[in-house]
Every structure is written in structure tokens, then in C-alpha cells.
Amino acid sequence: MHGLLLAFPVALFTFALFTDIAYLQTAEIQWTNFSSWLIVGALLGGALVLIWSIILAVVAWRLAHRQPSLIYAVLIAIMWIAGLVNAFQHSQDGWSSVGVTGLILSIISAALALTASWVAHRTVREMAR
């Protein structure tokens, strides 16, 4: 279930980055709308992942797998905060919503989502051994 929830922020933040790049290449305002919608969807899915990762970190704190769960929870929290700031950036005036700041925030959000996915996959593989 957790992997399914994590797929939403990974895919949506990544595609928001692609739509930001498309806007910067074409100046078609609809791309900023797509980015905003994708970011909001990623934040909604990311909120569920964040709640789940906090529960996982609390449970893992009592077991031997403390560090990976804590790293994962911190990555998800930073990803969500960066995505929230990105959503505020994208909610500005349509022509200036992306720019350098929006693009950098989209890169950070997508990179954190992908990194959190990698940490989660690695942790699950190690726990299965």
C-alpha cells in the first residue's frame, strides 16, 4: 500500500517538472495550469505518504531499523514542504509563476521524491533479507 501511495508524488512531481520545462520552451500558459494541478495532486498523495512515513518511523524506532526510516520520513517531509512552497510559487500570476524559482522548486521536489523512492526501495530490500 505504501509503495502505491509513494508512486503519486514521484510521478506527479516529475511530470510537473516536465510541464514547467514545456512552459519555459513554449510560453503557453496552459502548461502552468497543468503544473499547478500536478503539484496539488502530488501534495495530496504526499500528505498520505508523510503520515504513513511518520507512523513507520515511530514503529521502526522501537526496532533495529531506526536510521533508514528516519531518513525516509525526513526526505518525505522536506519533499512535501518544497512542494508546498512550489504550489505557492505556481499560484502567482500565470506568466511569472514558473520562471527560475518555480523550475528550481520543481527540480528539488522531483529529486526528493525520487530519492525517497530509492531509500524506501532499498530499505524494503534490506528488511526482506
From TrEMBL:
Keywords, in A-Z order: Membrane, Transmembrane, Transmembrane helix
Coiled coil: none
Name the UniProt record assigns to this protein: DUF2231 domain-containing protein
Domain (DUF2231) ranges: 1-120
Membrane-crossing residue ranges in chain numbering: 36-63, 70-88, 100-120
Pfam families for the chain: DUF2231
Organism: Sphingobium rhizovicinum
InterPro entries associated with the record: DUF2231_TM (IPR019251)
